[in-house]
Design goal:
The structure holds two protein chains of two kinds. Chain A is an alpha/beta fold. Chain A is about 35% helix and about 15% strand. Chain A contains eight helices and seven strands. In chain A, about 45% of the residues are buried. Chain A is globular. In chain B, the strands form five sheets. In chain B, strands 5-4-3-6-7 form a five-stranded parallel β-sheet, with helices on both faces. A five-stranded parallel β-sheet of chain B has the order 17-16-15-18-19. In chain B, strands 11-10-9-12 form a four-stranded parallel β-sheet. Chain B contains 16 helices and 19 strands. In chain B, strand 9, helix 6 and strand 10 form a beta-alpha-beta unit. The chains are: A alpha/beta, B alpha/beta. At the A-B interface, helix 4, helix 7 and helix 8 of A face helix 2, helix 3, helix 5, helix 10 and helix 11 of B.
Amino acid sequence: MRKFEKFSGIAAPMPLVNIDTDMIIPKQFLKTIKRSGLGVNAFAEMRYKADGSEVEDFVLNKPAYREASILIAGDNFGCGSSREHAPWALSDFGIKVVVSTSFADIFFNNCFKNGMLPIVLPAEQVEILMDDAEKGSNARMEIDLEAQTVTSSDGSIFSFEVDPFKKHCLLNGLDDIGLTMEKSSSIEAYEKKLEFERPWL
Amino acid sequence: MTAPKTLYDKIWDAHVAHASDDGTCLLYIDRHLVHEVTSPQAFEGLRMAGRSVRSPDKTIAVPDHNVPTTVDRESGIDNEESRIQVEALDKNAKEFGVHYYPVSDIRQGIVHIVGPEQGWTLPGMTVVCGDSHTATHGAFGALAHGIGTSEVEHVLATQTLIQKKSKNMKVEINGKLRPGVTAKDITLSVIGATGTAGGTGYVIEYCGEAIRDLSMEGRMTVCNMAIEGGARAGLIAPDKTTFEYCKGRPHAPKGAAWEQAVEYWMSLFTDEGAHFDKIIEINGADIAPVVTWGTSPEDVLPITDIVPEPESFEGGKIEAVKRSLDYMGLKAGQKLTDIKIDAVFIGSCTNGRIEDLRAAAKILEGKKVKDGMRAMVVPGSGLVRAQAEKEGLADIFKRAGFEWRLAGCSMCLAMNPDQLSEGERCASTSNRNFEGRQGYKGRTHLVSPAMAAAAAVTGHLTDVREMIS
């Protein structure tokens, strides 16, 4: 996994609440057996008309936001299906950070596994950033995971919380499986205990 | 004396294989269910890293999302991408040596129906699957939740998951349900009360008399939709109903092992005085048969109600409701029972079990599907289908004008050819009414199996209580 580094980028406003993973990546694109190439299908049913042409007023189709790397989103972003195709599609589009008041649990976890950072902020701060994002491509935000801050285009700084272990993994681009395998003696000890305590398993 | 524990606390504590100082744990996984859509990249990851499946005997794979449900499916899958995905699962199951139910096996079906049916799911376990509706298995008092593909790979490689503990939430449904009210109405009503984010960060324990009174099928319906309420998992403490369901199933323990297991399972309940971070109480008698009117599972109302005004909501929900009503082709103030239906879908991991088919068939006996509508029943597994045929339910459905299909996820998420067309409106026993969920621009109203059957007969959303004596 690539390391998550401090960056500044264009933030696109998506104020709709309850944006679900069916919206982020509709099911017809789940038939792939690869992780890559889904960016073009991100938000497909909101982004394209039935004939494949672009819906002009969809935010990511607007010239100002085509290079967006941050989404400022409404409450409960990523609810619904567990499909990791959702972060894969966003990441492939170029999105590295999503800011919202809340995220659905599985989507939230899936982001970290793909080098993406979901940031939870209080409603009034998300609202300020939403307004900032509305300004378009000249308004770039800065994301600093090390310092745990979002800096808006006018220099306002918002601090966010992040799980220390997840932060460590993101900053260093660490592979979870490798880390867990270092603890294989604990897993083996647990399995021995299990054989004794719950042999029917 | 130790502090009183919730059911969730007990299962969690029994599965921590390693705990770090910051609370990050390696949670041991007893059963890993796998399907064709969220697993190919995980198996590929193992292959690339030269890793094997740590516990193939605890890993169960079955294709369900993509499979056609027409009787001619033995001849193969037309859609090339779907076929490749199912073939990839065939190949991966064989190569990595996991338990497998191919499409040709009568035991094939929706992964969350097959697991319990075969006795893979048992009380006190941890169960995961790359599918959000894994919450279903919580009905057995098993800690069960959906995971992403990276986590599927992690479980395949290590039989553990990196987790932090969630908070405890109690949902208590007191007293008895009224006639015509089902498990589906309970679970939708809870989501209506809490919202789709109300359970975020929590594991829900459902309890109370109305939950105790439910069969295992009904309990699975309730827990299945815990995820729609945002919860990581739903749980119901195991009891006699649970043990009776499990006993004798192919992979349930036998003989002395069974006795030993039951003794342990009897300890799986929330201790008196255990702490819950959030408590919701609902009177069972206050729950009516419900339907969804919008494009979020929280958009739920009793069938006797009307389509709400967007302005009756607050904040960002106002815009979301305007968008929903536009998408659904509905007007505020319209009576829900006046909404005409084009299609009916009975099936899914929410309502594709034998009891669901019985409830729908009871309404349909001696009646016909309204002219011009299409209606289909997709049993949750080959064994549910066989049982329904044995009981004569299939004949009732067929005589009424329903298509009688083979098992799979089907129109719940429309990855196979079973899809709504643009603007087509469906009364569906599935779990999500999201935009495009059942087909591009398709419109979904979530209902119980009995309510779906009633709508099939009348051609509009209908209060099923008017059709039962």
